[in-house]
Write a structure and sequence with these properties.
Largest interface: A-B, 43 and 36 residues
Oligomer: heterodimer
Distance between the termini of chain B: 167 Å
Radius of gyration of chain B: 51 Å
Structural class of chain B: mainly alpha
Largest sheet of chain B: none
Structural class of chain A: mainly alpha
Order of helices and strands of chain A: HHHHHHHH
Order of helices and strands of chain B: HHHHHH
Strand content of chain B: under 5%
Largest sheet of chain A: none
Number of helices of chain A: 8
Strand content of chain A: under 5%
Helix content of chain B: over 70%
Helix content of chain A: over 70%
Chain lengths: ~200, ~130
């Protein structure tokens, strides 16, 4: 802490704080926005692989963004990615638990009424995809669909290890931080996931 | 399963995943952008409220000190005896009166000393009997 020769000097500094923190906060927000923009689509796809439903996946990703920016934005930026994926995976598990409970409850209740007004709220929803549906693209989509099904069939920890290491490109240490486990466990989960996926997809791929 | 096969599998699955990310439709992209904006806005609002502590803390400190001062004053013995302060004033006046009375008695002695010639004359006059 700064030392002051006189009380007047101390009061002057107190009344006129340095403007540096505002610039720092702005820079910090930009960095956070850049990080989220860079990661959001992959995070969405990973959540969609686990949950299948795109709306649920969007909810989970949005919740993870909110939690990261509210609670961990002040942490050093290299920590953001493992933290974000840990929050995301917790959100995915919560969503899966809620679904299980909902399923149990819904078996005792009459089915929900579909709200026709709920459809097409977003004007972009009805915009046609501009990409041509060429056969190669269709084959890739089909292969990805098989991969997604096989991933969903894996135990959660193996699926998580595979997606973080392979899809997100995290190293073992980062993955261990995101999964809150040891590096050895990550290696084991990943190796088992690769073997299980190859065993399942061998014929199709 | 050889290591090379594993690597080929990893490479292919990664490529497929990244293709699927690039192929996300506009609706999803738009909703992700909105989610990001909402998250950043929420974080900025939270930061604004937290940054207010520099202003609120001294003000709250001064207010708390004022309230504490009033409470201590009311609860203190001085505060409780504030009603008897008039009595103390009266006692002081009484003392002053006593002091004043002592002072008057001193004045009386002084007066006696001043008139001592008169009293010795009167004494002599009494003891000498009738002159005539």
């Amino acid at each position: 802490m700064a030392r002051f020769d006189t009380l007047n000097t101390a009061w002057t500094v107190w009344d006129n704080p340095a403007p540096a923190p505002e610039g720092a906060v702005l820079e910090y927000s930009r960095e956070l926005e850049k990080f989220l923009a860079e990661i959001e689509r992959r995070a969405f796809r990973m959540a969609q692989v686990a949950l299948r439903d795109p709306d649920d996946a969007l909810d989970v990703v949005q919740d993870a963004m909110l939690k990261l920016t509210r609670n961990y934005a002040a942490r050093p930026s290299p920590e953001w990615r493992p933290l974000f994926y840990r929050i995301l995976e917790n959100g995915i598990r919560d969503m899966q638990r809620r679904r299980t409970v909902r399923k149990r409850v819904m078996t005792w209740l009459p089915g929900p009424k579909e709200d026709p007004d709920n459809e097409a709220q977003d004007p972009l929803e009805n915009v046609a995809d501009s990409a041509p549906a060429i056969p190669e693209r269709l084959m890739q989509a089909e292969a990805m669909e098989h991969l997604e099904e096989s991933l969903r069939a894996l135990p959660a920890r193996q699926r998580e290890a595979f997606m973080l290491r392979n899809f997100e490109g995290m190293d073992v240490a980062e993955t261990a931080s995101a999964m809150a486990c040891s590096e050895g466990s990550v290696k084991t989960h990943y190796s088992r996931a690769v073997h299980a996926l190859r065993a399942q997809l061998g014929e199709v791929w | 399963m050889s290591e090379q096969d594993n690597e080929a599998f990893e490479t292919r699955s990664r490529a497929l995943f990244h293709d699927s990310v690039e192929g996300l439709d506009m609706r999803i992209r738009s909703r992700l952008t909105r989610a990001r904006s909402a998250a950043l806005e929420a974080a900025q609002q939270r930061r604004f409220w937290w940054s207010g502590w520099k202003v609120w803390t001294p003000a709250a400190g001064v207010t708390a000190a004022g309230i504490l001062g009033v409470v201590l004053w009311i609860g203190s013995p001085v505060g409780h005896q504030s009603g008897t302060l008039a009595d103390a004033q009266t006692s002081f006046e009484d003392l002053d009166l006593v002091a004043s009375s002592d002072e008057s008695s001193t004045d009386a002695i002084d007066m006696l000393q001043d008139d001592i010639d008169f009293y010795s004359f009167a004494d002599k006059a009494t003891n000498s009997g009738p002159a005539a």
